[in-house]
Model the fold of this input.
Amino acid sequence: MRIDAGTVWADVVKIREAAPLVHNITNYVVMNSTANALLALGASPVMAHAEEEVEDMVAIAGALVINVGTLSASWIRSMHRAARRAQAAKVPIVLDPVGAGATPYRTQTVHELIAAVPPTILRGNASEINAIVAAEARTKGVDSTAPAESAIDAARRLSRAHSCVVCISGATDYAVEGEEVAQVHNGHPMMPRVTGLGCTASALCGAFVAVSPSALAAAAHAMAVMGIAGEMAAEKAGGPGTLQLYFLDALYNLSEADIARRLRAGG
Amino acid sequence: MRIDAGTVWADVVKIREAAPLVHNITNYVVMNSTANALLALGASPVMAHAEEEVEDMVAIAGALVINVGTLSASWIRSMHRAARRAQAAKVPIVLDPVGAGATPYRTQTVHELIAAVPPTILRGNASEINAIVAAEARTKGVDSTAPAESAIDAARRLSRAHSCVVCISGATDYAVEGEEVAQVHNGHPMMPRVTGLGCTASALCGAFVAVSPSALAAAAHAMAVMGIAGEMAAEKAGGPGTLQLYFLDALYNLSEADIARRLRAGG
Amino acid sequence: MRIDAGTVWADVVKIREAAPLVHNITNYVVMNSTANALLALGASPVMAHAEEEVEDMVAIAGALVINVGTLSASWIRSMHRAARRAQAAKVPIVLDPVGAGATPYRTQTVHELIAAVPPTILRGNASEINAIVAAEARTKGVDSTAPAESAIDAARRLSRAHSCVVCISGATDYAVEGEEVAQVHNGHPMMPRVTGLGCTASALCGAFVAVSPSALAAAAHAMAVMGIAGEMAAEKAGGPGTLQLYFLDALYNLSEADIARRLRAGG
Done:
């Protein structure tokens, strides 16, 4: 998979023009920051979790993003209903398995979601991706304890088993579809000190897959834009507090020249 | 309805002196930013949604703000209980019909809330206000797809039918009470790129109506303060991330001179 | 209790090295800002509230933080389950009684939580601490209406009755354990204009008590770090919006020299 500044920029333009509606069933911690990132990029976010309305909402959406960060039983039921309707309506689905491996409840919920309706893109950190394939793997809370590279084999297995793209975020990000792998080397070490930037990456995958015919390209483009905006923000930020805000500003102002100058990606 | 810098400022001073308790039953996305805006303005926010406590909480509040942005069945029950108690205790009510028209569930919930206890102020964007009167109107998620002007007739009808003030936010904001209309021309085009500034506007309506005998003036004053603080923030902001923070700083520092210099309002 | 720059700094270093997992069952308003503060300090936050997983999560955590800011019945059940498991596993517990006294439901919930499993540290503002011991005391929403000093007697009683540390935040912060009292005089008057900084203080108590053998020292150190980071942020901030972000930057950059220069604490 070859991604370059031109393909990334073309998708950014499409998002800004189409302003795709991205339906998020996500965790309480990141709802605000996720919505702001989608708006800054040019998409139109909506958060809706009621069993009574998720099917109607996903039917008018360009993508569905399911994030298991703060679970409860009724939310899980809504995730299943929304996913089934998305599948029927050919709306692409992004699944973020936050904290898979930290508790049996999370791991099992993620397994059941994938088994019921395989996502178009599964995006997590290495600990989470490893935990999904290896029941014995343990995650410490929601932060990764392993480098992204350690999860590439697990990502390949998941991709083949469920015909989905698996995206592993870390110092280098990997988007895996069967044997194909795209790599993105952008980003900044201060980014994991801002809560929910992984969740934001999943939400941006939703915006990109809403306008892109290739889920693999969508995942790689989303990670590239995340990393580039993070680098731009880190140059101005005095710490993770201001990083978070400059990141949104960078998403909003992102230009073709920024991408051309900064993108470091490979196949 | 004539609003001028003196009437706006007088209400800001009242809020800063009285620090009215504003009870919010609002959506997960904006709880933090709404609370911060109320605190920055000088009010005292509280978020409480349990059926077991909403009646006790609203009884000690200066205003109740109901926002349907992220609904579920038990929250709707709490909204009804709180509204009935507010009505009995003569506590003014602001209703924000977030996403009305996007799904039948939202539209119906808003209809039932208005029918049970008409709000003192109903504040939404044009798509939402139109969707409440026209069952056939469709909203794209939670962002408006129509200019504020397109909803003035709908606002007049709702205002007369329910004896309430209807406030439509947009490039120009309108506060409508029967035949009376106040207009506010402040604001900045970057504001819709920050999630929940509409919800913040509703919360500020709550702070103003808690100290004002006129709901129409309260709505217009809230929109004026929103727009002016937004303009002040936009002059310093590099994008929607920093806009959000400078907006809170501007609310906190807002002076009589700022209002006198910037207010653009009409009848 | 003698706290000095050396003891504070030693605990900050321990947190940065161990990155203790802090399990929060907290309110919707502050989840994002709390998680960001813990990450900025160097801890690893996780938010989890499902009855199905709180016991598994707390078992791998270094501390449990329970915050009653936005209650509902199922969350209260999870708080009890998590607290019992924490007690069994000797995981320290911080309890933040947000809004105790504002409604009977909150006051009663706090009483029942303390009676079931006494927390290691109980941290609130003076209104809340007073409300817990005096059923007749009334709180206005979630903001304190009384100076911290007014709650020292109540704190002593609670500390003795439940063998816990009670921490009262205000212009001066007090950490009370039986007859012992530590005082911290750091902080800035603009801090109460940022929502949830009290909740952040409780979360930081969780990070400190996860690495400290003394709960009294942990509470005092957490308040010192809060106050010092708040002062550093206020020097740069133009209002409460930017204060919030510079506060996170200050936590992240906090050095031994900052603490040595600024700490004002006494026994």
Q: What stands out?
A: The mean pLDDT of chain B is 95.
